[in-house]
Amino acid sequence: MASSLPYTTPTLRRTANLYTNSNPNSSSSSSWPCFQGFSNCFGINSIWKHHILRAQAMTISKGNIASPRCANGVKDEPDHLLVLVHGIYASPSDWRYVEAELKRRLGRHFLIYASSSNTYSKTFAGIDGAGKRLADEVTQIVKSTESLKSISFLAHSLGGLIARYAVGVLYTSNASSIDKADCRKDSTLNASCNGMIAGLEAINFITLATPHLGVRGNKQLPFLLGVPILEKIAAPIAPIFVGRTGSQLFLTDGKPNKPPLLLRMTTDCEEGNFLSALGAFKYRILYANASYDHLVGRRTSSIRRESELVKPPFESLDGYKHVVDVEICPPVLSTGSKFPPEAARAKEAAQNVPNTQNTAEYHEIMEEEMIRGLQQLGWKKVDVSFHTSFWPFFAHNNIHVKDEWFHKAGAGVVAHVADSIKQQEKQHQSSSFISANL
Q1: How far is the C-alpha of 389 from the C-alpha of 391, rounded, in Å?
Q2: Class of residue 431 by CB neighbours under 10 A (exposed 0-12, middle 13-18, buried 19+)
Q3: Which of 50, 67, 197, 305 is deepest in the core (most CB within 10 A)?
Q4: Are 300 and 216 a contacting pair, CB within 8 Å?
Q5: Residue 54 CB neighbours (<10 A)
Q6: Higher-confidence residue: 323 or 36?
Q7: DSSP string, 121-134
Q8: In what order do the strands lie in the sheet with 283-289?
Q9: DSSP letter string over 243-310?
Q10: For residues 276 and 97, what is the distance between their CA atoms, to the nearest angstrom?
Q11: CA torsion angle for 427, 428, 434, 435 (degrees, to 10)?
């Protein structure tokens, strides 16, 4: 069921003001049953052993979360869990800089946890498998920290898809079907009526250069340069390098008559309430590289059609270097995503005879259906451009400062993320205080 909120607010663009709207949320169901960004997977360098040891150390240290104490001896326990999810063939060490900055800017109120359940080659076994492991990991953290009341996710590249699957598993509804209808009609109702994630109130869902629409299609995997023959042969070759995850990213997973995983993740079905789970978050933010990202295209990371892409401004927003544009996109009335018979025929052709014509047809159908499903929710879309940086071609790793020495150009993006979370937390606390005193 699509969101029925009659939004008339014009699209807001090019502003340094952080997101203040609480977008209405909706759940969706499909008539078909449930069946089943690249990070840099080829740039393996000489310090992997060091990263592996560091990841193991971080995993061990995060297993015992100590409760900090104030000067007067009273426990100052965190009540907001912020989960960081890395991309393909990566580890928690990718978040060193971001984790330090968030701790400095957000304070003890937040428990910042870098996920370690899907390190390195574990990300090759499928988005669904990685999502279930992440869901189990988050559940254990919540159980071990009784003070937690709310939860947010910050994910990079493939991690955004893993996080989307995980929240679908972790979602629980606390409203009847009638209540959900009321929520869709009245955006002023408390967000808690839309459900919870891991038993906590969902606040922020933020992704950085995540291939939400997969990587099939023209320039969705930019390092192929938009060459049709390369894009045609990439789909059957991808599983050789990145396993089951590759077929899911290219939308060729499963039997021809079954919808691919990424399409299922734009709706609610037996496998998980994926759309309702995203709708439970008060804020959903997409950060997309407008250029120089050779692993994840701008369309797929910003959930836009080709016709919706506009040339980004040249100058950065004040105080946030390389953050060039902000667009607030309200929900769009839609019947939701489907897997029509022509899609099944196109998928079979794309799997068995992957020529340029039938693969393009399949991609066009799937991209439109995924967008129709996801646009039922409101999104804040942030464009990032490293065109003035010293190493703009590192955009995919710059956006989350994977390495403080090589990717420090993304510091302004991290600052924008941190300030967005901080401002939204203040607004959430204020609205909660007002509601409690009504």
Answers
A1: 5
A2: middle
A3: 197
A4: no
A5: 15
A6: 323
A7: GGGGG-HHHHHHHH
A8: 12-13, 323-329, 379-384, 283-289, 201-208, 150-156, 80-85, 110-114
A9: HHHHHHHTT--S-TTS--HHHHTTSEETTEEHHHHHHHSSEEEEEEESS--SSS-HHHHHT--GGG--
A10: 32
A11: 150
**DSSP alpha helix (H) spans, 16-157:** 48-62, 96-106, 127-144
CA distance 111 to 157: 22
Report residue 206: phi and psi, to 5°: -125, 130
Reading the block at residue 55, the tokens are 């990841």
Tell whether the torsion through CA atoms of 422, 425, 431 and 437 is positive or negative. Answer: negative
Which of 341, 400, 352, 345 has its CA nearest to residue 159?
A: 400
Closest by alpha carbon to 385, among 334, 436, 314?
314
pLDDT greater than 80 at residue 164: yes
**Rounded-to-integer distance, Cα 172 and Cα 195, Å:** 6
Instruction: Name 238's Cβ contacts closer than 8 Å, sequence gap at least 6.
Output: 246, 247, 249, 250
The answer to whether 403 and 257 are in contact (CB under 8 A) is no
**Residue environment code for 224-254, b if the CB has 16+ CB neighbours within 10 A, otherwise e:** beeeeeebbebbeebbeebbbbbbbbbbbbb
| Range with the poorest average pLDDT among 137-141, 152-156, 173-177, 234-238 | 173-177
Closest CA to 39 of 151, 128, 162, 219: 162
pLDDT tens digits for range 210-268:
999 998 766 677 756 666 677 667 777 888 889 999 999 999 999 989 999 999 999 99
Token couple for 73: 């001896």
